[in-house]
Amino acid sequence: MQNRILLVEDDQAIADAVALNLKIVGYDYARFDDGQAAADSLTEDHAFDLALLDIMLPGMDGFELLSYMKKYGIPVIYMTAKADAASEIKGLLDGAEDYVIKPFDMMALMVRMEKVLARTGRLNRIYRAGDVELDDYKHLVYKAGVPVELSPLEYAVLLYLMKHKNLTVAREQLLSEVWGFEYMGESRSVDVKISTLRRKLGLGDAIKTVQKLGYRLEDR
Amino acid sequence: MKLRHKISLLAGGILLLVLLVCAGVLLLYARKTILALAEDQARDKQSALAASFSSMARYYAVPEDSDAARESLIRYCFSRFADQEGVLMRGNETLCSSVAVDPSLYAVPDREDSRTAVYRGLVDGRQLLIVSSLEYVQADTLYVGLVRDITEVYDAIGRLTRLFLGVCAAGVVLGMGLLFLAVKRSTEPLSRLTAATGEIADGAYDKRVIVSGRDEVGDLGQSFNRMAEAVENKIADLTEQNERQRLFIGGVSHEFKTPLAAVRLHGDLLQNAKLSEAERADSLQHIRRAGAYMTSMTQSLMELLLLDQAIEREETDPAALLSTVAEVAHDSLAARGVTLVTECETAPPLPLNPTLMTSLLLNLVENAARSYDAEDENKTVTLRAYGRCFEVADRGRGIPTEAQEHIFEPFYRVDKSRSRKQGGSGLGLALVKAIADAHGASLSLDSQPGRGTTFQVTF
Q1: Could you give the domains of chain B?
Q2: Residue B420: pLDDT above 80?
Q3: Which of A9, A11, A36, A57 to mutate to probe the B interface, most B CBs <10 Å?
Q4: Chain B interface, mutation test: which of A8, A10, A14, A217, most B Cβ atoms within 10 Å?
Q5: Most buried among A83, A114, A154, B53, by the most CB within 10 A?
Q6: Closest residue of A to B273, CA-based?
Q7: What span, in angstroms and rounded, lies between the C-alpha atoms of B293 and B291?
């Protein structure tokens, strides 16, 4: 089951960007541009794993909205242009899980989201791309329902690509996130793992090489 | 060295000098007078002695007398008149004397003329005054002298001198003490002034001195207080201006954050994500819009900054101004389905900056156009000029009463999200206010929520 995110942001451009990002990496979401409307909708539908809230919102501001989220046990990450420490402290003390300041980096926001979801025990650890499924609970990978044997490094690379589905992942990023340290000048080992994955899982087309940047696991 | 010490020392020195000169002159004069008096007395006595003695001796003396007889006569006659000061000599032979000195060594009368000789001086440790003359009795030339011990007179003069010097010294000490106090008292305001200046220099701009007296120091104190007040006001102005600018810059950077966030997020998407053609186009559109928004905001900011300088004015016909505004505003109003009605009653030419006033009226017109929702009907904005007044009126949603006092503040928005969607920079009305202020024109608004708003600019 996909994680479901509540997005409340009144700026069209930012809401569009965040929503598109959520969609392509495989989150389900509902979005509102008005605080009151978001609060009202919760009585009908409150099956959200996480809420991304702006603070300065028409209708009802993000701080007020937090109490509604608490009522339904939805963890909250604020994303706001209010960079002052007082607002951040207030937000966190009131019970928000995290606080990101605009302009923010989407990759960073997604890492924070994942951390919050994992911390609150809501993270969906089953990832799919095409006919490949990765079950992070059991550490198993299936190709069209058939288990495939992967080395721990191959598994970790695949997991990272799955988490950032449809987004370009830089080689350096993979090195530092999967290998866990700066693997200077050894980006060749990334290429080796990628080609193994392509071969073992038949992902030759799905894992795209993005010139000069890295790789992208495409599934749309 | 402090000024009061300098003044006191200088004045004390002058006082000492003057007193010494005065005392010296007085002393010399007194000494001369006393000695002259003593000499006159001695002369009188000697001449009386000489005259009495010689006339008596001459009266009784006869040429036939033997030398011994004549000598005893002379001695007798002299002793009749002389006291212990008298001395009678014949040649080097002392005939009659009760003093220890030989006066003929000091006071030597001239044989040629008959004047008396006077000697005054120190003899054997005593101050002596010796007066002598020569008297002739028969064949004898007799030396008649008067030897007077005037040591006491000199002692008296010495005592007088010491007294004078003592009085002088006391006068100088007392005078300097009084002077010091007086100088200290009159320079005290200067010390206070110095202390106050120090405090002001350290940042206590509300510090003032207590001004007393109407002399130069009092004047200085008053001028100083005026200066301190001017400085305080200026500092307060600058502080306030600084605070306003700080808030303004804070507002500006805050305003830029949202479009920047949009640019960054969509830029990342375009670079990294697999997007459909429609999604790509959307993202690009968002980036373009954020860019346009930031451009219009920087333009408004530049205009606002330039308004700090003095503006150039020219006599402008309001009717021409209105038609310019109508022409420029036409396209954007038409896109919103808003009709602009201009009315120009016989208005006199006004001294204004046409470019800035066009910008002001355009902003008001745009603002009025945004007061309508897309679904409203009969969307009209009226732009009027009459007398020395411009008026922009709409029948849109109006401005809530509590928002009316903030409406001209930079980045204030009655409805943040709607304003942004409609492309408002949050600076339009702030610019309107700044332009009106630069012209010295008054700006007022009359708004009823739900019924519309009228802005007036009056010259």
Answers
A1: 3-165 (3.30.450), 310-458 (3.30.565.10)
A2: no
A3: A11
A4: A14
A5: B53
A6: A167
A7: 5
A11-49 exposure pattern, b = at least 16 Cβ within 10 A, e = fewer: bebbbbbbbbbbebbbbebbbbbbbeebbebbeeeeebb
CATH of A4-119, one of 3.40.50.2300, 3.30.70.330, 1.10.1240.10, 3.40.1360.10: 3.40.50.2300
> Which segments of A131-181 does DSSP mark as H helices, in order?
152-163, 171-174
Cα end-to-end distance, chain A, whole Å: 18
Q: Which amino acid is at B206?
A: D
Helix, strand, coil tally for chain A in percent (to 5): 40, 25, 35
Largest CA distance in chain B: 180
Which of A81, A69, A106 shows the shortest CA–CA distance to A9? A81
Ranges in chain A, pLDDT < 50: none
Q: Write down the domain spans for chain A.
A: 4-119, 126-217
Please name the member of B259, B265, B272 whose beta carbon is closest to the beta carbon of A167. Answer: B272
- On the question of pLDDT at B405 being above 70, the answer is yes
**Is residue A170 within a helix (H) or strand (E), and if so which, with residue range?**
strand A168-170
Containing H/E element for B384? strand B380-386
Give the sign of the dihedral formed by CA B266, CA B270, CA B274, CA B278. Answer: positive
| Lookup: tokens for A2 | 């996909």
- B265 and A220 within 8 Å at the Cβ level: the answer is no
Rg of chain A taking only CA atoms, in angstroms: 19
| Residue A151: how many other CB atoms lie within 10 Å | 11
- Residues from chain A contacting residue B266 (CB–CB below 8 Å): 13, 16-17
Q: Is the dihedral of CA B447, B450, B451, B453 positive or negative?
A: positive
- What span, in angstroms and rounded, lies between the C-alpha atoms of A21 and A58? 24
What is the interface pTM, i.e. ipTM, of the complex? 0.88
Look at residue A185 and give its three-state secondary structure: coil
Q: Per-residue b/e over B396-428, b at no fewer than 16 CB within 10 Å?
A: bbbbeeeebeebbebbbbbebbebbeeebbbbb
Q: Which CATH number fits domain A126-217: 1.10.3470.10, 1.20.120.450, 3.30.70.100, 1.10.10.10?
A: 1.10.10.10
Nearest residue to B172 (alpha-carbon basis) of B1, B8, B3, B4 = B8
Best mutation target, B252, B258, B271, to test chain A (most A CBs within 10 A): B258
Tell me if B370 sits within 8 A of B424, measured CB to CB.
Answer: yes
User: Distance between terminal CA atoms of chain B?
Assistant: 63
Higher pLDDT, B365 or A180: B365
Q: Hey, what amino acid is at A93?
A: L
Q: Report the predicted TM-score, pTM, of the whole model to 2 decimal places.
A: 0.60
Q: Is the dihedral of CA B101, B107, B109, B115 positive or negative?
A: negative
Nearest-Cα residue of chain A relative to residue B254: A81
Using CA atoms, how far apart are residues A54 and A9, in angstroms rounded to an integer?
5
Interchain proximity B274–A106, CB inside 8 Å: no
Helical spans, DSSP H, in A26-167:
35-42, 62-71, 85-94, 106-119, 152-163
pLDDT digits (tens, 9 = 90+) for B237-265: 999 888 888 888 877 887 788 889 999 99
Instruction: Considering only the beta carbons, identify the residue of A10, A12, A20 that sits closest to B269.
Output: A20
Q: How far is the C-alpha of B392 from the C-alpha of B359, rounded, in Å?
A: 13
CA nearest to A214 within chain B: B272
pLDDT of residue B212: 72
